[in-house]
């Protein structure tokens, strides 16, 4: 299984459980019919979710996730969560930031358990979209504690907006692919500068 939403853009997934968050962010529709919004209809959303949760469980050792059958009612909730996360990540680049859509704040529940060897395990709780929200918020909390959250970014190219994990040493990446998005932006800026020359 794979993180299909992220891989369809030719990108490597974020490490560990943060890849599930990145994959949700990359369910957006970009570039017309070749990259549709995977959360627009139940069937593609269910296919995405099944594959992503299986990959997440494998990557994190979380065990088999519950069977979740998405309904039409779940899709707006998942899209709202995705939009809220994207807006939060865009605050890293305030000029690109779009305000989060109004609505209830996404909430979830996590159960903490002490293992026999003294470690704390975190388990998402809830049913359906609520369980998904709980697992995503748990991964975000873990990434914030491990200081990897700041490396999950939204490509600065207006036509792209793909979520990527910045693996640069100094965390300075702004494009998901410098050769594609960065080159186009730099070329436009260069042409604009040349037009201004006498």
What does this structure look like?
- The protein is mainly alpha-helical and 198 residues long.
- 42% of the residues lie in helices and 9% in strands.
- The chain contains six helices and four strands; from the N terminus they run ααααββαββα.
- The chain has helices at 4-7, 18-25, 42-60, 74-90, 129-145, 178-196; strands at 109-114, 120-125, 152-154, 163-165.
- It has a two-stranded antiparallel sheet. A two-stranded antiparallel ribbon has the order 3-4.
- The chain is globular, with a radius of gyration of 18 Å.
Order of helices and strands: HHHHEEHEEH
Give the percentage of residues in beta strands: 5-15%
Strand order of the largest sheet: 1-2
The rough form would be described as globular
Task: List the uncertain runs.
Answer: none
Termini gap: 57 Å
Radius of gyration: 18 Å
Can you give the mean pLDDT?
A: 85
Indicate the percent of residues in helices: 40-55%
**What structural class do helix, strand and pairing data support?**
mainly alpha
Number of strands: 4
Write the layout of secondary structure elements.
Elements: H1 4-7, H2 18-25, H3 42-60, H4 74-90, E1 109-114, E2 120-125, H5 129-145, E3 152-154, E4 163-165, H6 178-196
Antiparallel strand pairs: 1-2, 3-4
Descriptive keywords:
two-stranded antiparallel ribbon; 42% helix
Short description:
The protein has helices spanning 4-7, 18-25, 42-60, 74-90, 129-145, 178-196, and strands spanning 109-114, 120-125, 152-154, 163-165. With 198 residues, it is mainly α.
